[in-house]
Task: structure prediction
Amino acid sequence: MAQYPFERLGEEEAMETLAIVGASLAGLSAARAARAQGFSGRLLIIGDEHQRPYDRPPLSKEFLAGKIGIKHVMLEAEEADSDDPLQAEWLLGSPARSFDAATRTITLGDGSTVVADGVVIATGASARTLPELAGLANVFTLRTLQDAQDLAPELVAGGRLLVVGAGFIGAEVASTAKGLGMDVTIICKSEVPLSAPLGPEMAAVMATLHGINGVELICDTGIDSYYSYEGNVTGVRLSDGQYRSADVVLLGIGAVPNVGWLAGSGVELDDGVMCDAMGRTNVPGVVAVGDCAAWFDARSGRHHRVEHWSGAQERAALAVAGLLDHSAAPQPLNLPYFWSDQYGVTLQFAGHARDAERVEIEAGQLENHSFLAVYYRGEEPVGVLGVNQPRLFTRWRRQLNARNAPPVLATP
Result:
C-alpha cells in the first residue's frame, strides 16, 4: 500500500479564510501553526464548549484532586500578556452540525454558517456511555472540563467509587480518589488492564499498583446488572455473581470520534476521519488532526487514530503545512508517545507494543515500579516503557524515533 493513498490535491488556491473546527489542543496547535507558517488571512476557531482551549491530562489528576484550578489548565497562558497573536475569531458554544465539502460550508448548531477556503477538522472524541445508565445522577464520565467540575465534589473521603473500565482515565481517577480517602473498586473486562497499549507482560506489572495502593481490581468479568434507587446507582452485580455497592460510578470505557456532523459530507470516514500521512482528507482543502483523525501509518500500512496529547500537538503543524502548501514535502512522524501518572508513579511509553515479540528489562527493578523496558521485534527495538525513569526513557525515545523514521516517499 502506498504511503499516501489519496490523490494529490489540485493547484493551490488563494486561501483567505481558514476555519478550524474544534477549540481543542489540536485545534489551537493548528491555529498557531497556521500563523507561524505565514497564513495572514481570516482565522476562525469553532468550539462546542464555551471554554477556550484547555489541557485535558490534569483533569483526572491535579484538577480533580483540587490541587489546581481552571486558570492552571488553560492552554493560552503563554499568549496572555500579548495582544492576541493569533488574531482569531472565536465561535464558541455552538458546535458544528453539518458540512458541505463541495462548498466548504460549515453549519453550526445555532443555524449560522461559515464558508472557508481551508478547513481543519479537530473535533476530538467523546466518552463512551451506557444507555442503561442515562440520567442517573451519580454516574459520570471524564473527558471535558465540565465533566471534571461535576465529578470533583462527589469524590469525598469514606465514599465508595466504582470505576467501570481500567484504561488510563479509569486508573488515574482511581488513584486520585484513593488519595482523597475513598474506597475504590475497578471493574475490568479483560484479563489484564492496559494490555493493548503496554502488552500483557508489562500491563500485568503495572496492574499490581492498584492492589499495592489499596484499590480493588476485579478483572476478566463484566457487569450483569445495575441497581438504582431514587435516580442513583447503588450497586452492581458482576458476571461472576459478586456484588459491589457504590456511591459514585465512573465510566472509563473508551471514546468515540466526533465525526457525526460529517455524515454525508463527502469526507471519507471509518474509525474517524480518514487521512493520508500528513492529515489530508479525500476532499481538497480539508485536513484533520487530533483524536478524530485516522492518519495513514507507513510502518503498519494502515490508518489509525492516535489519541494522545503529543500527537495532537505535533501533527497539527504537518497538517497545516499540507493545507497551506499542496507541494509540501511529507515528513516522518515520531512514534506514538503517551504518559500516565498513577499512585505517585509516572509511566511513559513510546512505540507500538503490538509489534513486539519480546520485552527486555534494561534498567531498574519491576518490584519497586522503577524500571526501563525495551520492546523488541527480532533484534530491532520497536518500543520503550519507562516507569519512574524519565532520563533513560527520553534517551531511548529519541533513539527510537531516529531509528524508526521511514523513508520519505513521494506522493503519487
